[in-house]
Amino acid sequence: MNELKTELKQLVIDALDLEDVTVDDIDSSEPLFIDGLGLDSIDALELGLALQKCYGIKLTADSEETRKHFASIDSLAELVASHKNA
Amino acid sequence: MKARHWSTVSEAGAVSGIRFMFGIYRWFGRLPFRICLYPVILYYFLFKKTARDASLEYLRHMRADYRLRDDQPLLLQSYRHFMNFGECILDKLAVWQGDISLDSLAFHNHEVFDDLVSRGQGCVMVGSHLGNLEICRALAKRNVSVTINVLMHTAHATRFNEMLSRANSEAHVNVIQVSEISPATAILLKQKIDDGEFLVIAGDRTPVSGQGNVTEVSFLGERCYMPQGPFVLASILRCPVLSIFCLRRERGGKPFFDLYMDHFADRIRLPRRDRESALEETVQRWADLLAGYCQKAPLQWFNFYSYWHRADADPNTEISPD
């Protein structure tokens, strides 16, 4: 799981072109959007596309659900793990 | 009085009236249709104050920006503006019925479009409610091998679309209803771009959800909000952007359409560091292009709601439905 989290941090950094941010700077439990890492709605779209490309995850149209999945690296890891097991 | 967001104003021609009018067109032709259209449009002109005020506001802006002749009474121009809207609705129905063919369309500078099609490169086409894009959708359906998807803001136009689909069962195909661009929609649309499909999206109406996503620009001499959506979408889809306009004129007593597609950008880049300024620059460039086309067909501006009212207000507070 920790490996996956590191992988996801790198994915976030690459997909969103986060300059000056390293894997070590991101706390798995901190919010990705607004506070914490400070991502915005355009980043959310990029992140969705990156998840689809790397893991084949198709998000549902339910925005509330997406918001939960995108809350932190921890919740993203859960999403990816459950998708892999499915 | 609080100005209303466009999505809360029902389309100026009520559907029942249009259905009757369409019957006249179908049974008797365009001339009797027109004879009936005059009083109907006069009715809307006289009693739909919101739409009339919006029309006058737009025409005043056009005049102040030297894009419209001012040697005619403003009210007369406004009435003709309404008449154009009536004709536009008929054209939409007529084209799906097969009464308007490719012979009635001139495709200007189509090289950009042809090049994309031959390379199998999907793209975003930014359109507007200036002119009549329905003509292109209908003709493309029959004559072009590329798949064209139209992104529409939610249920507002649904009743009209129901009528269209009654006129032609294919009319509903490839209309994607989106109220906001979510990550899920982005994935769906990315797939379409990857398959070489085209996405048409209106660049002149602000989002229904009202979650911001608008940029303040100068349009016809005054500040107003325009949507960021088409350009944000193009940036994440990493695809070229074209503008598309389909303007009407009369030729030999029949409607004739000029289709213009301009190259807008190979790719829209919204770098994180100056995203806001990149968006501003892009949306302003679009607003300028739109103003230029307004000058070509001043009375074919089919946004009958107050367009500039939110210039000094917070976009989030004004958009809530009445």
From TrEMBL, chain A:
Q: Which Pfam families match?
A: PP-binding
Domain Carrier: from-to ranges: 2-84
What SUPFAM superfamilies would the database entry show?
Answer: ACP-like
List the signal peptide residues. Answer: none
Which parts of the chain are coiled coil?
none
The cross-references to InterPro entries, in alphabetical order and at most eight, read: ACP-like_sf, PP-bd_ACP
NCBIfam families noted in UniProt: PRK09184.1 (NF006617)
- Name of the protein this chain belongs to: Acyl carrier protein
Organism of origin: Marinobacter persicus
UniProtKB/TrEMBL annotation, chain B:
The residues that cross the membrane are 27-46
Give compartment(s).
Cell inner membrane
Q: Which GO terms describe its molecular function?
A: acyltransferase activity
Mention any one GO cellular component term assigned to this protein in its UniProt record: plasma membrane
Q: Which domain of life is it from?
A: Bacteria
The record's listing under Pfam families reads: Lip_A_acyltrans
Keywords from the UniProt entry:
Acyltransferase, Cell inner membrane, Cell membrane, Membrane, Transferase, Transmembrane, Transmembrane helix
Q: Name one GO biological process term.
A: glycolipid biosynthetic process
Q: What is this protein called?
A: Predicted acyltransferase, LPLAT superfamily
Q: What organism is listed for this UniProt entry?
A: Marinobacter persicus
